[in-house]
Protein 1
Amino acid sequence: MADKPKKPQKLKARLPRGLEDRGPTAIAATRRMTETIREVFERYGFEPVETPAMEYTDALGKFLPDQDRPNEGVFSFQDDDEQWISLRYDLTAPLARYVAENFDALPKPYRSYRAGYVFRNEKPGPGRFRQFMQFDADTVGSASPAADAEMCMMASDTMEALGIPRGSYVVKVNNRKVLDGVMDTIGLGGIENAGRRLTVLRAIDKADKFEWIEIEKLLGSGRRDESGDFTKGAELSPAQIEAVRQSLQFKIEFEWMDDGGWHERIQGELPKQFINVEGEALMRTGLFELGEISKVLKAAGYEEDRVRIDSSVVRGLEYYTGAVFEVELLLDAKDEKGRSVRFGSVGGGGRYDGLVSRFREEPVPATGFSIGVSRLQAALRMVSRIDTAPHPGPVVVTVFDQERIADYQRMVTLLRDNGIRAELYLGSGKFGAQMKYADKRNSPCVVIQGSDEKSRGIVLIKDCFQGAKNAAITDREEYKAAQAKVQYAVLEEELLDEVREVLTRHDVTWG
Amino acid sequence: MADKPKKPQKLKARLPRGLEDRGPTAIAATRRMTETIREVFERYGFEPVETPAMEYTDALGKFLPDQDRPNEGVFSFQDDDEQWISLRYDLTAPLARYVAENFDALPKPYRSYRAGYVFRNEKPGPGRFRQFMQFDADTVGSASPAADAEMCMMASDTMEALGIPRGSYVVKVNNRKVLDGVMDTIGLGGIENAGRRLTVLRAIDKADKFEWIEIEKLLGSGRRDESGDFTKGAELSPAQIEAVRQSLQFKIEFEWMDDGGWHERIQGELPKQFINVEGEALMRTGLFELGEISKVLKAAGYEEDRVRIDSSVVRGLEYYTGAVFEVELLLDAKDEKGRSVRFGSVGGGGRYDGLVSRFREEPVPATGFSIGVSRLQAALRMVSRIDTAPHPGPVVVTVFDQERIADYQRMVTLLRDNGIRAELYLGSGKFGAQMKYADKRNSPCVVIQGSDEKSRGIVLIKDCFQGAKNAAITDREEYKAAQAKVQYAVLEEELLDEVREVLTRHDVTWG
């Protein structure tokens, strides 16, 4: 390439929007989080299964809310046999494919979990990523509301295992059948209204983010946001909008009562425009299922402070057919400008009885729950619930004489063979640069051997952590005395013991 | 959807070729492997960093050997601003982008590691996957052969940490500069010959898989494989082919000698057609660097049984500029038809001094090593070095009376709260189906409470593992006595203690 006389234009090193690199503290935090979640999910009897990051586009289906995005929010490309392949946008659609493909071999109900990155071609924006991690559990082959209840309990247990105290999160439950019943009541039933129904559901989904006046716009003629982008509305009439508003008031009627009484209470108190109309039966089925879920939750001791029925919960994905859940963080946080931050949902899920049946003749009821690991991690970092202190780096053996690099390597090997993280300085910098390097790596100590030390059979140890502490000393004599403990000579054969000593002195453990 | 009278055609549940699902034992094995690799890499002083699965296509560059594949073997799609984005085909190209983008903030040399899935749009075939996991370490900003030597040592340590005994693997080292010198000698230097040079290198790369006669075809007019596919050759003349063949004989000259002598030996014994010709200087530089690497390896005690110089090592990726390494498994394995299986390379890497400089004005030398986790795992599974026994499943609490599901849930919660993996049977099957389910889940025991037991305040415990053992008993009386220990009643309040007892009896620990 050096043959060409003109200097080639250099490429710009940059990432596409909505993607991010992750450093040591973020990676360590994710590892701890996924280990914790895994423990809880396994205690609940779920076993791991993983599918690849890509699937045939038709097998995934298009259930995302981003209908105005390229390929409806999914990254897709054509295979060499012309078939379309897409990156998974969640872990549920691929699981449905997996279960359908391996149906006869799997135990039923089939209870599994998985963690992995998913990809959405979302409109980029602050905190909106196009690649993020989810951790899912699913029970496929059970129509029982107890399976839905279990998802809520597990969501709650997971939050607490992750260090979020009771009261600082809530698992909210609703049932799509109730919402679908409302749709029927206002004349939005039938396959021909599927699109508008979804628009209404997604408007309701925003009820915890927007004022009602904004929701009204989304239910009516549409809404223009601050950036000028226009979201088409559901074109409901004022009377239809009023019925939707009333249906959201249900939540005040949901209270935890003794078994049975709970049912009758809600069922008895349906607002009167929902009685003796189309949709009433579906609403009542949804309410009955919510009652069954609440019975199990109560029996297991998950009272209202952990799991709560909330009629505004919708979930944006199109494939839900029954119970829907959402985990919300109630932690109080401020952004860098001191404004209160709403974290919103850090996990959710629901019943998707139709998803596996897309591939099979028999009905296959299923329910699942997904933790947004990336989103939860971002939230916990914001409230300082995640350790972001830099970890100790390796012991650095400096190089004074390139000819003697094999000798220095021997010292490194000795330390490594004894389980100590260690490395040879491999750059071309002089002593100052090597010390700066060790500092940047947060090295607990540095090993030094010039020709003078070599001839005397000694090595110098520099205790970097002690050095950092000494910087705070103001008294000159005291500082001098303290510095003597920072850099000192030991015999070559004492190297290993002395490095161990330094590590013990500063409680260095590597995570 | 039920409105439509005609039955819709069901989708076929299937994965695109070259992709696979992974079950519990494979996932557990990967987790153990990556944990082990991580420990070794961290002991060497590398710190984690992760980049996303996709990058701008131009930032990744096209360095794969699959030039006859769509997009040269890379999965690509256009972003909504028309820019092309690709899935990463390795972990090195994205790291180069990361280092270039964050150059000033990073310690130099920058030593990092990462694990992740990479994607190649390869021609599908047995054992060739389009998604697989790699685990990489890289030292960026060091031109020192000691950095290359370290990669070889770490590769060796990693293999042994993974349970592959010394002698059952070998790390082979070569230097692209030697090969590039040979190219110059036979008149294939210069940017205008880059394509043919690569074809020659890739032919040499196959020297451990094919007979020399096949390599000759690849160096000459081309080769047709058994499937009828034709690979274009490098169109070398017979004299050029002979020179390449001779250059591969170097390997017999490489021997481990005392420092210094090693250098002179190889440098003194260059076959005479490589002396006083163009390319000699480059070859000698490559040989000198190999000598420097061998000095460090020897000092650290990595004698020939772990790391070996081998002039046939090339590596298929285009971006290597100096030392190249490859880890080969020497384990003896047979496939299902009893034929010997060659695993080939399970890891490799090399020096890529030009990759970061694509983005920056200054030269940024770099070297790295990548373990093919998926490929190594497949190899270890074939020689039974990976535990594939099913793990114990959860304790299953059966359901006799749907009305009492809340009671059964209480038992499950009690077990879970005490750290025992447990679940409620959530299907709709009768007793027989529930027992079959527990069997399929490999449950250590099952908890049963019908109305009769309930009224007497007891529960039945079925010890499934004992039951499985009893199946081997042939004596009728003995069997009867043994079966009494398989299913028995305990008081409700003894449930937890008794389940613990069963778990202890069978040494059940969950991984």
Note: The radius of gyration of chain A is 30 Å.
Protein 2
Amino acid sequence: MDFPKKLKEKIVEIVKKTMKIGKDDPRKIWHAFKVGLSLTLISLFYYYRPLYDGFGQSAIWAVLTVVVVFEFTAGATLSKCLNRGFATLTAGALGVGAKYFADLFGKEGEPIVLGILVFTLGALGTFTRFFPHMKRRYDYGILIFVLTFSMVTVSGYRVDKILELAHQRLSTILIGAATCMIVSLIVCPVWAGEDLHKLVYTHLEKLANFLEGFGSEYFIFSENDEIVKASNEGFLGAYKTVLNSKATEEALANFAWWEPGHGSFRLRHPWKQYLKIGVLARECACHLQALSGYFNSKPQVPSEFQKKIEEACTKMCIESSKVLKELAFSIKTMTQPSSSAAEIHLRHSKAAVDDFKSILAATETLLLSNKLDLLEIFPAITVASVLIDVINCIDKIFESVEDLSVQAHFKKAKNKEFSSSSPEKPPPQHQLLHRGIVKPVVDVDDVDSGGDFVAIEICSGGAALAGKAEVNPAVVKK
Amino acid sequence: MDFPKKLKEKIVEIVKKTMKIGKDDPRKIWHAFKVGLSLTLISLFYYYRPLYDGFGQSAIWAVLTVVVVFEFTAGATLSKCLNRGFATLTAGALGVGAKYFADLFGKEGEPIVLGILVFTLGALGTFTRFFPHMKRRYDYGILIFVLTFSMVTVSGYRVDKILELAHQRLSTILIGAATCMIVSLIVCPVWAGEDLHKLVYTHLEKLANFLEGFGSEYFIFSENDEIVKASNEGFLGAYKTVLNSKATEEALANFAWWEPGHGSFRLRHPWKQYLKIGVLARECACHLQALSGYFNSKPQVPSEFQKKIEEACTKMCIESSKVLKELAFSIKTMTQPSSSAAEIHLRHSKAAVDDFKSILAATETLLLSNKLDLLEIFPAITVASVLIDVINCIDKIFESVEDLSVQAHFKKAKNKEFSSSSPEKPPPQHQLLHRGIVKPVVDVDDVDSGGDFVAIEICSGGAALAGKAEVNPAVVKK
């Protein structure tokens, strides 16, 4: 009685999961469609008599090739196709040679010679796959090399028409590989390079969102902190995906290496530079992890000292977040970061660090008034210190993105069209900064005037001190 | 003229690389040997007439299976073999069914029905591979399922003896897979589970080495700091491999799931718990990355305040390092951490945190004597704060290792045989702590008496203050 109900639940669950995967990335549905299409195309070799007569039973290798070789990204598919093609070609030739060589030893000696050859090449090939450079790029090729060589030499012992066998295998594999490449490159292609590009700049955006959220929350004390914390779980967790992205980024960069030029990416796009930015982004995410720990143990009541450094620290967060957003935007649009507002914000964030340090240095008043308790200011000082590390790290990211922009020939931005000023695409911070303290100011004031920053600083600081006071953009504009 | 020289250089380079890989992990050479052996065994099917007569040309599938299925670890090989075997079985049965079903539609309708079936199953199967759970465990199985189904149905259109074809393919694949499994499990097996086990405890050791090195270096001020820094690059860099270990750990855990019980690992060993420890180790490594940043910008001259907190901070480092070492040792030997010295050291490190906090709280003297410059104490305070985070993290690691010890039924340690007291295996810190300040004391005193810690603390602190003064273990013993 219970079984049909459970089955129904299971089916509903699977359908929901499928819908979710399809919705998150419709290219996955396309990919499944493309594999089905290639398989059907290839099976025409069997159904259509004239084609079948040319290849016979060997046509099955084409089917096998399609299933094994078709990968999600175009780069991965190309890499496998080319590896398979070249490996089959060379190993086939070598295998035929080995067969004729073994023939010299007579009917008795042949299997022994063949056995030794297969063992040697199998072992050598397998060991070669441990070389990091080979593994990264030619792993599949070596596998197919060993496979083809073994198959040709071993079956050559029984089959007389070994040349024909090798030739049929090669041509069917080439047909299968060509079908895969064409379908993969033409029907809604998934570019690994584009994915890497997107991954790197969304990671920067995630870091920026964290910093923005942290800056607007940590130094503000309100009664409903619990609610705020709950609503912030999104941005607090997003940096975690950055932390463990190394394997994905490297795989994508490897696949991207195989891809032809497409869109704004040329054939020799500096994919390695993306990996360097990725390393720095992970370093930055590491610091954010430390910050998120402090966020949870945020003191209930602000100390005197905390109020003093609040302005500088908030500025550090907000400005460094803006640097990251500008950098992400300049990668996204492939414009030079030096022509964006990133540099200005970076300077501002460094100025905030100096502000903070001068507050620290000028503690005499606190000392005299005996208001200073080191234990109490301990968390705030640590947070500030981590923020300084973050800014140093962002400095390095800035340089790295600049290197990328030079290597990849990013274009100059026209009319200073900064990310935050483009009205048609509201940046994601709108959804995030639910208190709307800083954003309205930035939209109107900061970007147009470029260097006119004091107004914002006072404004955001003031608003922060006043709790949840909503600043009307129109008022600020005046 | 230049070519032979370059070729020679290249060959020498390749030989050196090969030697290095073989030396680092001799199991890789064994693996290559094993693949060669399996290939040679399988090719006997061709050379030996009675065996060949049974299978004919289909025997080539056995060769193919061996090359494709043989992986470095036993778990990966088993996973691929079982996936391949079951997928071939079910897909073969389904394929034969599909062929008879398509027969019902007559000679005209058959290719259309077959085409639709192949497309549908190909697309569905490909999409299924995107489900995270399926991808993790049955990715290869689905691939082979689609492959076999397509091959059987497509070639069924031309071959009349489809049942025989499916049967031959299945039995040759099973023979190939069985050969791989037997060779992989019997000849010098490489267990993914054992690798994971080893990886996790060496990661803890690496973290411990960093903390030990940091503790004995950061708070010591000597003239030849540059030399010290250079010699420390080893331990300063080791934690980095921990940071990016997620992918490796998860792959190993997946493979380990397939492995039968071996050595001290049972069939259902809690591999998932190792991943939990891994997550915490990475969190800890994140903090260490922050610390290593401060190590490079270490102040030349210690401030008054720094001298004050030095003792507590050094103790935090050394004690937390010992906790990690004990935990690593208890994982390594599969003994319960609660019966090791880990708990004692954890308590000591927490006591050091309290010491530090009470120093911070008692700043009145500093305030009155006006010796306190917040800007100057800033780096030291930050380092201490990160150390506190590290200890909190280690606390979590301790709990996690305890969970593991319960789930995996770790045995109780006999006679309190702690890692640091076992004389036959000198722990790696010997090579590391080149100043030999702390280690000799630990060997003789600390472990046996268990709680008698004051002597060491003073000693290491004193030695640290005195610069590079070498403490004779014999003297300390008295």
Note: DSSP finds 21 helices and no strands in chain B.
Protein 3
Amino acid sequence: MTKKIKVGVIGASGYTGADAVRLLAGHPYAEIVVLCAHTHAGQNMEDIFPQFTGLALPPLQKVEDVDWSKIDVVLCGLPHATAQDVICTLPDDLKIIDMSADFRLRNADTYAQWYGRAHTAPALLSQAVYGLSEHYGDEIKSARLVACPGCYPTAVLLLLLPLVKAGLIDVDDLIIDAKSGVSGTGRNVKESNLFCETAEGTQAYSVAAHRHAPEIEQELARVAGCDVVVNFTPHLIPMNRGELVSIYAKSKSRAADIRAALASAYGDAAFIHIGATGLVPSTRHVRGSNYAMLNAFDDRIDGRVILFAAIDNLVKGSSGQAVQNMNLMFGFGETCGLEQQPLAP
Amino acid sequence: MTKKIKVGVIGASGYTGADAVRLLAGHPYAEIVVLCAHTHAGQNMEDIFPQFTGLALPPLQKVEDVDWSKIDVVLCGLPHATAQDVICTLPDDLKIIDMSADFRLRNADTYAQWYGRAHTAPALLSQAVYGLSEHYGDEIKSARLVACPGCYPTAVLLLLLPLVKAGLIDVDDLIIDAKSGVSGTGRNVKESNLFCETAEGTQAYSVAAHRHAPEIEQELARVAGCDVVVNFTPHLIPMNRGELVSIYAKSKSRAADIRAALASAYGDAAFIHIGATGLVPSTRHVRGSNYAMLNAFDDRIDGRVILFAAIDNLVKGSSGQAVQNMNLMFGFGETCGLEQQPLAP
Amino acid sequence: MTKKIKVGVIGASGYTGADAVRLLAGHPYAEIVVLCAHTHAGQNMEDIFPQFTGLALPPLQKVEDVDWSKIDVVLCGLPHATAQDVICTLPDDLKIIDMSADFRLRNADTYAQWYGRAHTAPALLSQAVYGLSEHYGDEIKSARLVACPGCYPTAVLLLLLPLVKAGLIDVDDLIIDAKSGVSGTGRNVKESNLFCETAEGTQAYSVAAHRHAPEIEQELARVAGCDVVVNFTPHLIPMNRGELVSIYAKSKSRAADIRAALASAYGDAAFIHIGATGLVPSTRHVRGSNYAMLNAFDDRIDGRVILFAAIDNLVKGSSGQAVQNMNLMFGFGETCGLEQQPLAP
Amino acid sequence: MTKKIKVGVIGASGYTGADAVRLLAGHPYAEIVVLCAHTHAGQNMEDIFPQFTGLALPPLQKVEDVDWSKIDVVLCGLPHATAQDVICTLPDDLKIIDMSADFRLRNADTYAQWYGRAHTAPALLSQAVYGLSEHYGDEIKSARLVACPGCYPTAVLLLLLPLVKAGLIDVDDLIIDAKSGVSGTGRNVKESNLFCETAEGTQAYSVAAHRHAPEIEQELARVAGCDVVVNFTPHLIPMNRGELVSIYAKSKSRAADIRAALASAYGDAAFIHIGATGLVPSTRHVRGSNYAMLNAFDDRIDGRVILFAAIDNLVKGSSGQAVQNMNLMFGFGETCGLEQQPLAP
């Protein structure tokens, strides 16, 4: 029997932190031994999230009060900018899986440009591996610091990376219309996240200004071999979880070829579904699970195709991919702790 | 004081029919004297829609049992295909405002191609006026049969017609990603409309095959002077009402110019709002009302702009525009019966 | 033609304030000339609520900057406790319709007990008239300060007052299970009002401790002639608007008698619907309108009946009743500005 | 290693059937070898429920086409009345866990009275064991046919059975106000289940006439030793899953004693949580899981207490409890296949 690794979660009182706890609680080879949440230090997880009642979880602590020497890996669910300040204080031999945006952009200048502040841990930045599990598996296996992709980039890149690599779609005119459930904005207590400001309505946000755009462009540029600028337009949908990206792309190929290319690229991937021909991916196909549902359709405009990817923004888009990366880093089966089937309805 | 006109509503048990009744009940110059609903004939509206309790509405009848001789105008909310069969039985001097798709496509062949059946009233088809109130006002004023646009085409064309006319955007690469509340699919009792199949999730539907595409293309072609093929991809959003179209268009102009062009085109229009610079149109800005909220943004891709229009699919997208057209046809103030402010939250 | 009265709204940036503006904007005899919102002073309503785009509304001001001398009446939508501090600064000859809880409890000691602070304007308290329009119409007509009932008490008392008066139900064992949409908690930016904390779930709140209980008990005691203690258990429902109270009461009468008593009590009331026999009141019967839908059913337990009332918490439960009271105070028709039919779906 | 049992699911295209498949797919000692769905026979589960893409599930069959000889147990998710007609055709040595209402009422006359038809398999009825896992564990272990309780009775009885047994509450005046997500009504394609008829609103249904009342009364009567009639008033809540029962009961005890009695009764129960003092049970505490969250509060009315239970209607209220019963019948650990933590948000 495999000995269990000792895992910590920082930022356990946020949605991604809590979802990591939900998944780790059922992981056969991981034991949660440290939970950190700054303002809630001293409380128990079940005081904040009563759904965890009955689990024997450690009490919430401040990061600075933790003895990290016995911990194998930490998942970090802190807000952007805070993460880098905390992570740079952790011991060098502690493996870190970060779910914030702090280590995703490989270039500190790009970071500064989009986040409006200089990166405070550029040395760590150059060390970080981009944690898109299906595409950077080898680097992740040997990484000390993994930067899990944003939820939108995860969905977008799972679709586009194999197609751009294969030369099947153009990168010069990519329109990405994205739709996310409200948990995508985190547990921030702000007016725009109130039920009455989000239920029974929809709208775009961060138009031509969302911070996931440079992350998408960075990764597409690497495989395209040229600079890429995309249209990325996220919309807020009145649902808790779920993320759908609808991508409108120029292509000389037809949907059938694209489906074939995706199937070929993801033949062995445990979490990637290519829908049957004509199946329109829905967020309800993946809710609560680590799966992604992809598909492609011919457009009526000549030379264009329509691509869809649906994921759960908190799972494959964050804590699930973090656990998947942990599995890669420690040599566990890739699906350990992630076997839950989607919850529908 | 203006004498009240006598109005009938056919298909009163559907959502568009009922919403027409809601609006007409408060109209200062219209009196509802006939209500038709085939399977519910003999019942009262409040038996089906208890929200109408207390209104003195006529009982539901079958169309064939109505004496139409005293009626000035009828609003027809029947399903597609049924509408043409019923409307061709109505007296020649009865004005008709049809909310179905039956008389929107000016070409019977296009109709047959998209609806999979020959049009059974081609003579009426050639008579029909396309009821986009802000753009066909003059024709509507003297029309006998007005074909109200589909909900999606209403939102799309309010945005695009002035811009295409002004040569500000290209028509050869229009990407229209649309989002609709579930009432957009009508009151059809089918599995995909169940709460548990639509709540807490989102997905596209009728990909590259939605029947509102040819309607949009028909109207754009008239102003563009050439054939037009658009990408039109509707998505189902877990909300009752509301429709948002996100349009990604090639343009040599910038958003500021486009906003100016829209403002100029709609200077006098009572129901068209151009949002302040940077305001992202939301369906909650127009819920329950006849308003449309439009706006434009610069894309990060050179030579592209992002356009949004939000309407209430049942009001401006159907029964509200029908009442607006009725006002035009009878010389009433254009806002009569349509003064309700949006309901938010 | 009646001259329009000049109306102010204080607390215009909250949900009840904004809903008052929505209703007043369509009132034939009222003109909004002053809008106050402390932290938003200097902005326009459409900056905060874009649904008001196009209405010619005055800019937002601070209360202390207003010249009240030309104003006929003010509707006050401030939070509890704040309201009393502001209202006591207003001129003596200004009529005030308060939508907060500050002047509902007639006894300053009861106020102090439930609100945990001494009332700072006890003189005003003794002047205030309880603004349940259908039951205190005469007092309201001549009042200077009207305290609009809470949303729950409105629904509960519309059902119970006539029945207790008529001796049809017992007051000693009233179980009131109430359900409210999230707007009932106001526009407070707090964690429990976030979409992800309220959507797709339900729970009770303020169990045996909600501040609407003493208000209900105060009014029931007046007609019962004895002290009353009720069970009042509110639940949060994932919807924007709407309030349903399910009351379980001991009665020697049957539902038919109770329905008859309600019909008799509300024969002339414009906004009170008694549902047809067997019709179960739903919040969707009244959404966005000033109506209440009431009904009664026999329980299977001998000697018990089940009563329901549905209202829109922001309209009949707050700003709509405020406008109705304004109509009474100024001798307008009771339905002026409140003619909107319910919005369903 | 334990050999896997061979399991069939009848009615696999309904919500309870599909949720059973979701849970069984992760069960360490069960293998799904037969799936039945009458109208969908010949299709695959993933054609109907794309969330099952990638699972190696058997194709859907008709019940009469199955060779049952190698099957150990079948979970039956057929609609009421249909279930008895199908189950009586199954081999005598096949263990059956029925999720319908057909075998819950021990008395065929009571069945006939509430379901309006004579029971067609009264011999089976007398054989059936009531499958409330925590209370009938011993009978379930040796049962051939287990009738899983209704979702509402599960929540109600988990709360009340220990308290009635202990003499802590009276059974003569029980008010049970229940709230359910829409999946509680099944996947029936009927108007009242449409999104637009259920979203953004709430109402009671089956007032004083719901078929779960006699089931609750039957079980309470057994422990009370006398006939019981309860008020049971279910309400439909705009959410997919989740069930909350709010029970108003006469009691000489206080909430603290009741909490203690519940804790004592369920000391060893894996799925029963007694919330911390003051914690109000929410459906989001149990979503997607087999847990129940219980709690008790003092009422302000003397001699009364307020009790709450929250479950997921499709899991603990149906398929989860079915799997729990299967575990009991085959000697597996009670939590096998049911370890998923609740999904929140």
Note: Chain C is about 30% helix and 20% strand.
